[in-house]
Each structure stands twice: as C-alpha cells, then as structure tokens.
Amino acid sequence: xxxxxxxxxxxxxxxxxxxxxxxxxxxxxxxxxxxxxxxxxxxxxxxxxxxxxxxxxxxxxxxxxxxxxxxxxxxxxxxxxxxxxxxxxxxxxxxxx
Length: 97
Known about the structure:
Layout: H1 7-36, H2 42-45, H3 48-65, H4 69-92
Helix pairs in contact: 1-4, 3-4
C-alpha cells in the first residue's frame, strides 16, 4: 500500500481497488454458474453447511488482515444470497453458461 499525498490520490487508489473487487466478483459469479451443473437439487445450492464454511473462512481471513470480521461477513452474506439466487436460476435452466 502506498502513502498518498492528497485526497484525490487516495480516491484514485480506492477506485482502482473497487475495479478489482468488481472484476473478482464477476469471476466468482462465473464459477458459481459452473457449480450449478454439479448440483442435483435447489436444496444442495442452498447448503447451510457450505455457506457457514465460507462465512467462517472469510471471518478468519478478515481477522488475520486486521479488518472487522463482522463487516466482511455481512458483505459476504449479501454476496452469497445474490449468488445463490443466480445459481438457482442457472440450475433451473440446465446449468448452461
């Protein structure tokens, strides 16, 4: 992380990070769509066990990186909810991506 000299420089760096976050979310969504073809039911897509594993993993990672585990878990809950919806739609359409 670089030390910024102005607010504008900070904002430019934040914008770069935001672009990377969006690219990573897009990449994640493509894998989620692929996962649909391996599932046998909607219940399997909504797997509480898998969701809890992901949330525990990101909470732990957040803690090791010095960011609030609750903040990261809250963001991931929204991300997972939306991606579960997307995966269900993909599943209903035969997993074609």
